[in-house]
Amino acid sequence: MNDIPQDDDLFEADPIAAYCVRCRESVEMDSPTPVWTRKGMPATRGECPLCGGVVFRMGKTDAHRDFTRPAAIQVGDGDKRRTPLLARDTVYVNFSAENMEFAQSLAADLNNAGVAAWLHETETDSVAWAGGVHPALKACDRMVYILSAHALSDPQVITSWEFFRGKRKPIVIAQVDSTLHPPDAIRRSPRFDFAVDYKSAFRQMLQALSR
Prior knowledge:
By secondary structure, the protein is α/β, with parallel strands linked by helices. The chain folds into two domains: about 5-70, no CATH class; about 70-210, 3-Layer(aba) Sandwich (Rossmann fold), CATH 3.40.50.10140. It has helices at about 100-110, 135-140, 155-165, 200-210, and strands spanning about 15-20, 25-30, 30-35, 40-45, 55-60, 70-75, 85, 90-95, 115-120, 140-145, 170-175, 190-195. The longest helix is centred in the middle third of the chain and has 13 residues, at about 100-110.
């Protein structure tokens, strides 16, 4: 008997259970949406029926049959085991660790809309990338900068948008606090207020990213 799981074994029937980090328990997610992670792996994003927070479940479902897995390309040099695989025309989502939940939700929505999104690691990177620049910054041709109080002082976030600006690559701003202003150097970048109306801001941001 072959113990290796076949492709069809990866499909799960609804409802889809996932662990909610807020409620600290397994729940049956509401509004499950098929997505692909930055590494090209299938996953499902949904809402917790108890707290309304975002929940994720790795693995393929029947809903993934209607979606094409994003094409991936190798970027950067060095250790291939640590070099990221990115889909073409990937958007780099630049955020501070405190905005992880919002960044994950935004990236999932971008992926679902057909725009591949890369979420940078928020931990200190132990890999010595060539030139001190993460290869994802070189490979991605667009950036979504999540503007928050933490992001304004986060060294990794600042270094990332400064690199993009230096390469004259487009940056759009996803604002999660309406009272804040972006850094002077990128103040003219298209800005969308997600704190007021997420759906409207997301729709407008998609249009800006497609230009």
